[in-house]
Design brief:
Order of helices and strands: EHHHEHHHEEEHHEHEEHEE
Structural class: alpha/beta
Oligomer: single chain
Strand content: 15-25%
């Protein structure tokens, strides 16, 4: 079983870290280098328009592209799962994981990325921002979905080829999961849905659902879950599995509105 997460816009390359396992090399360095080359050709104003960024954020990210290296110095990188910040990664709380737990995550967790395609938790990542939905013209087409094409699904198939019953648990947003070619993917896909009770109705609240995805990934790591059925016992922060509205491909978790 392989769990998929989205990346985060917010990054933290400054907070001190306890001793962690050595970083690994990203899977698609050549493709990331191609994208950086394309981005470097844009002006600050073009970057701002391309990604709907403020001028300061556009300037920051243009500087990041210019500083990006195919073979970076270790000091300019951080393991992906420790570099991403935000709601999902607050739920995951990867900085509290021990080396053995990070090693398990390395084998069972993948982060979809507009820049890198797929990142394993311990892959050395350089600071960047490139959302998967960005319409960046490239040799493959007009956007990143066309750029990554069949590569991501092909890689996921390789990761799962030893499993008797390959399963992908999608904890990523639809923006990122769309980069996985479902026609090529040779695995059952299970989606986890997290809903909040509001005025007697249940609905998905974006920032809460993001945190819940991270919480679920952390639960899978803590339990060493290798089958989606094991995730049904997830009860962190008041969530509970609701079998009546769930299916084999869509597991729904609900909770009462938190105080």
């Amino acid at each position: 079983m392989l769990l998929l997460l989205s990346p985060a816009k917010s990054l933290d390359f400054d907070s001190p870290l306890a001793e962690v396992p050595p970083a690994t090399a990203p899977i698609f360095p050549s493709q990331a280098a191609q994208l950086v080359t394309l981005l470097r050709r844009h002006s600050q104003e073009q970057i701002a328009g391309l990604m709907a960024l403020s001028d300061p954020l556009a300037a920051l990210n243009l500087a990041r592209y210019k500083a990006w290296r195919r073979t970076p110095a270790p000091a300019s990188t951080r393991q992906a799962v420790l570099a991403f910040d935000g709601d999902v990664y607050g739920g995951l709380a990867a900085r509290n994981l021990q080396a053995e737990e990070l090693g398990w995550a390395q084998q069972h967790l993948a982060i979809l990325s507009g820049m890198y395609g797929v990142l394993r938790p311990l892959d050395a990542m350089q600071p960047h921002r490139l959302e998967m939905s960005t319409r960046l013209a490239n040799a493959g087409g007009s956007n990143l979905y066309q750029f990554w094409g069949k590569r991501i699904a092909g890689y996921l198939n390789e990761r799962l080829q030893a499993d008797a019953e390959p399963v992908v648990v999608n904890l990523a947003s639809q923006e990122y999961f769309k980069a996985v070619d479902r026609k090529l993917l040779r695995a059952r896909v299970v989606e986890c849905v997290f809903e909040e009770e509001r005025d007697g109705r249940h609905k998905i609240i974006s920032f809460m659902a993001k945190r819940a995805r991270g919480l679920m990934a952390r639960y899978a790591i803590d339990q060493r879950a290798d089958r989606p059925e094991q995730l049904q016992a997830f009860c962190t922060e008041g969530y509970a599995f609701v079998p009546d509205v769930s299916t084999l491909e869509r597991m729904v978790f609900r909770r009462a509105a938190p105080a």
